[in-house]
Amino acid sequence: MSSHSLPGGTWTLGDLSVSRFGYGAMQLAGPGVMGPPADRDAALAVLREVRDLGITHIDTAGAYGPRFTNQLIREALHPYPEALHMVTKVGADRDQQGGWPPARKPEDLRRAIHENLEDLGVDVLDLVNLRLGDAQGTQPGSLAAPFETLVELQQQGLIRHLGVSNATADQVAEARAIAPIVCVQNMYNLAYRQDDRLIDELAEQGIAYVPFFPLGGFSPLQSSALSTVADRLNATPMSAALAWLLQRSPNILLIPGTSSTAHLRENVTGAGLRLSPEDLAELDKIGRQ
Fold first, then answer.
1. Hey, which of 1, 140, 194, 231 has its CA 20 to 30 A from 92?
2. CB of 10 within 8 A of CB of 19?
3. Annotated catalytic residue: which of 64, 188, 192, 209?
4. 154: Cβ–Cβ under 8 A, 6 or more apart, which residues?
């Protein structure tokens, strides 16, 4: 399978062409996204299946593990196919309790960039998202200082493209005033629709929107309307939810995560489900209630 035959086709991040159906690597780490995976061979097999399916967009972060997930990616896939692109995040760390404290001081960001380079085994990071806010969600405030640090690292040739994650619309605008960004990665799914206007504005500017927790994250999507549409199509609710995202806007890139090759293939198949205008209208009501 090639990236062009995957659901949704491709999108261009700056000068990088990626499959709109991507893969989020967070679940490859151990429980609580801490430590190594319980089944290392299974984790490596998932990553190789990602490559074999033609997926060319892998989302990761040095904080996953921490560092274990990036090291798994390198072990499974290095040397990387020319078409494969990794997108990583900096701006959050891990503590001994499994928390995600902010780490956006210049020295934190420089350390994180060099750790990502080392663990992924590359000289340049394709795309780095600045993670803002906290584990509870977005938080208002200027991103200028940490974002300008990443711009400096980009100018040094360590980063190809920049994006922001867990950002408010004001922070997206502030980042764009400092330097070009190619994506915004925020929480968004069928039931959580706070970024509808932002998605449409970014689409007009040719900027990707990458929803994290596309299936609800730690609180999986549950809706009678979703189940009704899925039953009508002889599909799973999660398939309908992924398909809705791909059909919501052409700039939406999917990064559903899994630690199972079978589940990965199910997600690919599910995202290719074609929803009728009636199906889309019915599902659209879920997040607007």
1. 194
2. yes
3. 64
4. 160, 161, 162, 179
Cβ atoms 223, 286 nearer than 8 A? yes
- Residue 64: which of 39, 94, 85, 87 has the closest Cα? 94
- Catalytic site includes residue 192: no
Strand spans (E) along the chain:
10-13, 16-19, 23-24, 57-59, 85-90, 125-131, 159-165, 183-187, 208-212
Instruction: Give the model confidence (pLDDT) of 163-175 as tens digits.
Output: 999 999 999 999 9
234: left (phi over 0), alpha (psi -120 to 50) or beta: left
Question: CA-to-CA distance for 242 and 253, rounded, in angstroms?
Answer: 10
3-class secondary structure, 8: coil
Interval 128-185: pLDDT, tens: 999 999 988 999 999 999 999 999 999 999 999 999 999 999 999 999 999 999 999 9
Report the alpha-carbon distance of residue 29 to residue 27 in Å, rounded. 5
End-to-end CA distance of the chain: 39
pLDDT band at residue 1, thresholds of 50, 70 and 90? low
pLDDT for the residue numbered 214? 84
**Strand, coil or helix: what is 74?**
helix
Quote the DSSP letter at residue 66: T
What does each C-alpha distance from 20 to 120, 183, 242 come to in angstroms?
Answer: 22, 12, 12
Q: What number is the average pLDDT over the span 69-96?
A: 97
Distance CA 167, CA 141 (A): 10
